[in-house]
Amino acid sequence: MKAGIASIRKELAGIYSVEEIDSLIFLILGKVKGYSRTRVLLASDENLTDEELNEINLIVSRLKKDEPIQYILGETEFYGLPFYSVSGVLIPRPETEELVQWIIQENQHPEPTILDIGTGSGCIVISLQKKIPQSTVLACDISPVCIETTQRNAELNQTEVSVFEYDILNNSPEMDFPKLDIIVSNPPYVRETEKKLMEKNVLDYEPELALFVPNDDPLIFYNRIADFAHVHLNNEGRLYFEINEAFGKECSEMLQEKGFSEIKLKRDIHDKNRMIRAVLIKSDKTNR
Length: 288
Description:
Blueprint: H1 2-12, H2 18-33, H3 37-42, H4 50-63, H5 69-73, E1 75-78, E2 81-84, H6 94-106, E3 113-117, H7 123-131, E4 136-141, H8 144-156, E5 161-165, E6 180-185, E7 190-191, H9 200-205, E8 212-213, H10 220-232, E9 233-242, H11 248-257, E10 261-267, E11 273-280
Parallel strand pairs: 3-4, 3-6, 4-5, 6-9, 7-8
Antiparallel strand pairs: 1-2, 9-11, 10-11
């Protein structure tokens, strides 16, 4: 495999950093050979077949066009779990794993009912269902490809997720929701003006529908989901968001104005304000 590894390094040099290339080598050989990282290291003297070399060359050629490795391989990992990764569905980010961990740590219900709004790949809600086994989990999205991908990922991870198409901005279609203990969402939050700051592999390949919001209304999804939460959360129910780091203060103020309590802004591994939690205390304590 030494020749194959050397070829990958040569072809990707100057396009990706040395660290990125090292990571890509393990992912590529893991896909082509079905090997773990450890086995790749131990099997460096093995020869690759012509078929395997051709597969590697095809992957590398796509990487040189900035296509994300997750789409090329058709798979990724999130919170230690495998997920299908397909074009048209946002690729799960490591920062979102922190949001999942926060929810798990704060969960106070033995059998919570959880809704993930704008579920994408289903990575958040499926991870929660795996780590809170007695939970009832629901997931919605406006995109049919996201609905299908979440269903496939739920089956892949042997979880039970009720997945359905729903437009949160327009409350469409009208439907009855159960009372919820937790609502979580990682909605679109990148302003159009921020496009120039983004990497080519994101702009050219990942779905705009899952990324961008109007410059003049960057909290459009947060406002609507907060209103939805007022209706559908149980007393002392919790609302969790992943947010644009530039709007932590605005999100906090919006939630406070809408009557939420215990609002907490949380920084991610990059020391950016990336998550927020709020609790809904209802005046009628019997409303659970």
